[in-house]
Amino acid sequence: MRARSPGAVGGTGRRGRWLAAVVAALSLATAGCYRGAGGTGDDGPRTLNVLMVNNPQMVDLQRLTAEHFTKETGIRVHFTVLPEDDLRDKMSQDFSSQAGQYDVASLSNYETPIYARNGWLTPLGERAAKDPQFDQKDLLAPVRSSLTAADGEVYAEPFYGESSFLMYRKDLFEAAGLTMPAHPTWSQVAAMAAKLDGSRKGLKGICLRGQPGWGQLTAPLTTVVNTFGGTWFDKDWQARVDSPEFARAARFYVGLLRAHGEPGAPQAGYTECLNDMQQGKVAMWYDATAGAGSLESADSPVAGRIGYAPAPVERTASAGWLYTWAWGIQKASTRQEAAWEFVRWASGKAYEELAGRELGWSRVPAGKRASLYRDPDYLKEAGAFAGATERAITSARPDDPGVQPRPAPGIQFVGIPEFSDLGTKVSQEISAAIAGKQSVDDALRAGQRLAREVSDAYTGR
After folding, report:
1. What are the phi and psi torsion angles at 311 (to 5°)?
2. Is the predicted pLDDT of residue 12 greater than 60, yes or no?
3. pLDDT per residue over 94-132, tens digit each?
4. Alpha helices in 197-321 (DSSP H)
5. Cα separation of 100 and 36, whole Å?
6. What is the rounded (10 degree) CA torsion for 47, 53, 55, 59?
7. 289 lies in a domain?
8. pTM for this one?
9. Could you give the 3-state DSSP secondary structure of residue 4?
10. Which of 91, 101, 349, 443 pairs with 431 at a CA distance of 20 to 30 A?
């Protein structure tokens, strides 16, 4: 079953006016805090302005750029590095207006198809096809497809990719007489969490994100919704947040966290769960495959003691999400060739080898190229999780993640412009239920009202 592509921002009718208002509101909201890119005074053709998220792998790239990329190409790069939410605000303003302040930006597989439909990105497929050293076919198929728009063109190249899986303490399982199934179900995970909870002083059974945000709580929760048989919208854009399947998944997620989850769960996101796992406070953690590199790093207290299992399921064969941070070139940029030189370097095999040599193989931006998972140097350091990560990414099904047809692609999100706002608002309701401030049913009733507003815009009601 193939997902239908949502429309571009704009157009006619009620939905077009509604989406135009969303973009206008975003621009107004961010205009007051819009800051120029630091040090972008040189507007020459061999100087690039790059807008980038402040993730560790990106900061590593920033450190290596002058000594390697600039030295090799003569192209100077000015970086503006921001937290994720600030990055999205600034990128949305600059790209939607085609102001051209930034030549290249780090964007995800959520934004890429949306930006492409609106004509904000330069197609990259032809350049990549003519560049044998870049080797576009080496990119993992789900990652490559997620950056391909409805017109068949590639509009971004990945920097790193991830799926999700279940991380668990092998030593704690052995001490408790437990064996992790090869393909665990959520029912089995809940039973194991109950047995592990309190088996050592201060130990909780599992860590799951409870922090509000469409990229925080909503991401893992939506994978649970998918495998329990639920969906945000059916194929005809009818909101289904209050459906029995969605409700069962939400009750399960909230109940598991309240019974056996980490302390402070309503404020816990990826970073907090990573810290809890490293510090031995939780026995299991379901989250991004990217977390494994930190758990197995040389300075991690739990290195060598972690096992990796596929994302738990109920009614589907797989449940892992798909996410990638990638590089897109703004269509309005006047430095297209230099921008492609940067993208091909930052997404290329040679950069992975450079990062491995200079920084250590656990810090390589992985999850995008098949060749990395055959590299003996990488496997020597990342062997504990490399295979599990590759399998999780290659089994991801963003066009068909549940048990019913979907109106838009996406596993842990719905690939429409409205979802960042919808997913965040609904997550606030669910997080309040995790905190015990309201019932799950009350949270879902509020979520259904919010989802119906989006549904009505798509169906013209």
Report:
1. -55, 130
2. no
3. 999 999 999 999 999 999 999 999 999 999 999 999 999
4. 218-227, 244-260, 270-278, 291-295
5. 12
6. 20
7. yes
8. 0.88
9. coil
10. 91
